[in-house]
UniProtKB/TrEMBL annotation, chain A:
One of its GO terms (cellular component) is cytosol. Pfam families: CTU2. This is Cytoplasmic tRNA 2-thiolation protein 2. It comes from Macrostomum lignano. SUPFAM superfamilies: Adenine nucleotide alpha hydrolases-like. Keywords: Cytoplasm, tRNA processing. One of its GO terms (molecular function) is sulfurtransferase activity.
From TrEMBL, chain B:
Plays a central role in 2-thiolation of mcm(5)S(2)U at tRNA wobble positions of tRNA(Lys), tRNA(Glu) and tRNA(Gln). Directly binds tRNAs and probably acts by catalyzing adenylation of tRNAs, an intermediate required for 2-thiolation. It is unclear whether it acts as a sulfurtransferase that transfers sulfur from thiocarboxylated URM1 onto the uridine of tRNAs at wobble position. It comes from Macrostomum lignano. InterPro entries: CTU1-like_ATP-bd (IPR056369), CTU1_C (IPR032442), Ncs6/Tuc1/Ctu1 (IPR000541), Rossmann-like_a/b/a_fold (IPR014729), TilS/TtcA_N (IPR011063), tRNA_thiolation_TtcA_Ctu1 (IPR035107). CDD domains: CTU1-like. This is Cytoplasmic tRNA 2-thiolation protein 1. Gene3D superfamilies: HUPs. One of its GO terms (cellular component) is mitochondrion. GO terms for biological process: tRNA wobble position uridine thiolation.
């Protein structure tokens, strides 16, 4: 009841609501599932096509979305060793369940790769030596491995502190919450990449859902890059590691519902690895962090506009990949010719050049405007900014892309952070 | 943050901290920096050419008032050689637009720039108050946005302007980028961050000289310069979808002030796949305005209003019914044209009524 509406407007809205209610009544408990049309099967949720589906149809829907990605991409060949990152979260549990189901002998057209399940333990990074929540999480994950993985599946627990020795120091040296969370996110993927090399795996599967990928896309935009890599089904990261996101078509809500409806005892342990006491993660003070802001925003907007997450991913599908490794194998000559950033493997973003008569886009862009503002120097009453201002007009010759430069500059121990990010042994 | 004892650029005591960079500056140095950055944006993007007539889209609000003041100042200081005119659109919103137009008329006098006002009533036969009464308070920003864009273009064409400058700031551009991403509008995303947009169809190109200026800094500039502007939000704005994008952008700016320019940077560097399907821009078969559809959105909305079905072209169910409506409009227009001008002398854009009105008058 909106007091600002006139009587006529209220009547129009009321009639529409009546039609919606009629529609809902058609798919109510009495009518049964709209997918299998069995009146005895009670609908439990609505999926993307707004169909009300029963438990069996929902489980089949999730399985289909998972399998369809592999079928369309043809990325993984029979017998290939594939690393499956398991964090104990919602997406990871769904991924474990679907991979196990897909590899079962009784499954029609079963998947034929060899999975290697890996949990990256961050307990020692945050000085948790046995009593803290991260140690408890590790124990819970190992129990899940024992309870839910067939004996023939490889499973490993690797320590992040051993894979990235300077990580703890680098995290403590980050100066803002955004950089902290970005480093945490990158370190997880870096550890998975190193693990894939250690266990001779050609691909890395992660449990990132559509909601999570939409978040990562928005985070990437807020840090200066919009490309297909953040939300794609597969992306090639630094070191040539191919990351695959088989849960790309499922939202976080759907994976949570999957865990509940599967009723096989495999439940999420903890949302994500983080130091809960870190003041940099307390989004209630000092403006928060970009990842925190985006996560809460997207979660709220998705409830009012359910197509939001898919709109973001669909837009990303129309973009080119910034991955230099991906570009060199395609007809994208611009990406193939680009220099890869050693920290993230993506192409170096366009650096602002001087006024050398080049095209307008290289002479006028937001990065250039930001550098101008930060480096303005006034000489007397001259209305022109000083051209000696921090070498603004000289061609930028940075080693890293802009996003990675911002991350590195946000750490007081840059050398330590570089060691964590740079893949010295990576094959480019 | 430690209090600064000296302005970043001179020896004076700082009077404000720049939202964009966090630098503590005195008032005069803030003016200098703000004007220097705007001048750099204009020069580096080759926004104007000497001798051009530039219509400044002015509403009486802070952005357009600051834009008019800045362009006049920089035009004289750096000899751009531009002929500046103020162009305003009166949507017919009682209690809002009439007050801002009063402020605009005072700006016309203080800056000495000639002002021309076009009204929705003159162009479309409807005021926004009448549109809201007919269509309701949902999606009314769709009507106003579509109508105003075309009105500005037509007004600039009437003034024989070479360029149309608007007061869109960094916050506006960042919100637009986020909004287009959230709605999955790849076509608009590809051009929304351009500083100079060539609309085509013989219409003046649009420029955004304040594209990299933060909204907070525009407010500070207007405040310290004591510029006369009208600062109230439109009565019908609160329900707009853009509000969601604005809330996100504000929170991102609070977390990291440079995030606004990072968002714009991401949109400027965007590259689409060569096989990505994008709508092509053509012209409306009824009015000749640039459009990606056979009939432009303004004509479709107007047809809905005139036929008593204003919600036909807005909302989720519009995709199929909009096509049917366009087809019907084209068919009716063809029939009217044949009856009105005759097939040999059919004028582009004639839908019968214009000729009929001319004949009556």
């Amino acid at each position: 009841c909106d007091p600002d509406l006139t009587e006529e407007e209220t009547a129009v809205l009321t009639s529409r609501l009546s039609r919606q209610q009629q529609h809902q009544q058609q798919s109510s408990l009495l009518s049964g599932c709209e997918k299998c049309c069995q009146k005895d099967n009670c609908p439990v949720t609505r999926v993307r096509s707004a169909q009300a589906v029963c438990r069996q149809c929902f489980l089949a829907y999730c399985t289909h979305q998972f399998r369809a990605g592999f079928g369309k991409s043809q990325l993984i060949r029979a017998g290939e060793r594939v690393l499956v990152g398991f964090s104990g979260g919602n997406g990871a549990c769904a991924l474990l369940r679907l991979v196990k189901q897909g590899l079962a002998e009784s499954t029609h057209r079963k998947l034929r790769f060899t999975p290697v399940f890996v949990y990256i333990d961050f307990a020692t990074v945050f000085n948790d030596n046995g009593d803290g929540p991260l140690s408890g999480r590790r124990a819970a994950v190992l129990e899940q491995f024992d309870a839910h993985l067939p004996v023939e599946f490889e499973r490993h627990c690797l320590t992040a502190a051993e894979l990235l020795p300077g990580l703890s120091e680098a995290l403590a040296a980050m100066t803002d919450g955004t950089g902290y969370r970005e480093l945490l996110h990158r370190s997880v993927h870096r550890c998975l990449a190193l693990a894939s090399r250690q266990f001779n795996c050609s691909r890395v599967l992660t449990g990132e859902t559509a909601s999570r990928l939409a978040e990562l896309t928005l985070r990437s935009v807020a840090q200066g890059r919009l490309s297909a890599d953040s939300g794609a089904f597969s992306a090639i990261a630094a070191g040539g590691v191919c990351q695959v996101r088989p849960l790309r078509q499922l939202t976080s809500a759907e994976t949570a519902l999957l865990s509940w409806l599967a009723a096989d005892g495999l439940m999420p342990v903890c949302p994500r690895p983080a130091d809960p006491d870190s003041p940099l993660l307390n989004d209630g003070q000092g403006g928060g962090s970009i990842p925190g802001v985006i996560a809460s925003f997207l979660g709220g907007l998705q409830q009012s506009f359910p197509a939001t997450v898919y709109n973001i991913l669909r837009t990303g599908e129309k973009l080119q990949s910034d991955s230099v490794a991906a570009g060199s194998s395609s007809s994208d000559s611009a990406a193939a010719a680009a220099t890869p950033c050693p920290a993230c493997g993506l192409s170096m973003q366009q650096q602002p050049s001087g006024d050398d008569g080049g095209n307008v886009r290289s002479n006028c862009n937001a990065l250039r405007a930001l550098r101008l503002s930060e480096n303005l120097a006034r000489s007397g009453d001259s209305p022109e900014p000083s051209t000696a201002a921090a070498g603004l007009w000289a061609k930028e010759g940075g080693r890293y892309c802009y996003s990675c430069s911002v991350l590195l500059n946000g750490c007081s121990k840059r050398a330590v952070l570089e060691e964590c990010l740079i893949d010295a042994d990576g094959a480019d | 943050r430690q209090p600064q004892r000296r302005c970043r650029f001179c020896e004076k005591k700082p009077q404000l901290r720049r939202p964009k960079t966090g630098h503590a500056v005195c008032r005069d140095c803030f003016f200098w920096a703000f004007e220097a950055e705007t001048h750099d944006t204009i020069v580096s993007s080759r926004m104007f050419s000497p001798g051009e007539r530039v219509a400044i889209g002015a509403s009486g609000g802070k952005d357009s008032t600051v834009l008019a003041y800045l362009l006049k100042t920089l035009n004289e200081r750096h000899n751009y050689g531009l002929d500046l005119r103020l162009l305003a659109i009166d949507e017919g919103i009682a209690g809002y637009r009439d007050d801002s137009l009063d402020a605009l008329r005072r700006t016309e006098v203080s800056l000495g720039l000639p002002l021309t006002i076009f009204t929705y009533r003159d162009l479309y036969g409807w005021t926004m108050d009448e549109v809201v009464r007919a269509a309701g308070r949902r999606s009314n920003c769709t009507f106003c946005g579509v109508f105003r864009r075309q009105a500005l273009d037509r007004g600039a064409g009437h003034l024989k302007a070479d360029k149309l400058a608007t007061g869109h700031n960094a916050d506006d551009v960042a919100e637009t980028v986020v909004m287009n991403l959230l709605r999955g509008d790849a076509a608009r995303l590809s051009r929304c961050a351009d500083g100079v947009t060539h609309t085509g169809g013989g219409l003046p190109a649009r420029c955004k000289p304040l594209k990299y200026a933060y909204e907070k800094e525009i407010v500070l500039y207007a405040y310290f310069k004591r510029l006369d502007y009208f600062a109230t939000e439109c009565l019908y704005a609160p329900a707009a979808y853009r509000g969601h994008a604005r809330a996100l952008v504000k929170d991102l700016e609070r977390a990291r002030p440079a995030a606004l320019l990072h968002i714009i940077q991401a949109a400027e560097q965007i590259r689409f796949r060569t096989d990505a399907r994008m709508p092509e821009l053509d012209t409306c078969r009824l009015c000749g305005y640039v459009s990606s559809q056979p009939v432009c959105k303004a004509c479709v909305l107007l047809d809905g209003l005139n036929s008593g079905n204003p919600r036909l072209a807005v909302g989720k169910s519009s995709a199929c019914s909009a096509k049917q409506q366009q087809q019907r409009m084209l068919t009716d227009a063809g029939r009217n044209r044949a009856q009105c001008c005759g097939s040999a002398g059919a004028r582009r854009g004639c839908s019968g009524s214009a000729c009929a009105a001319a004949a009556d008058s």
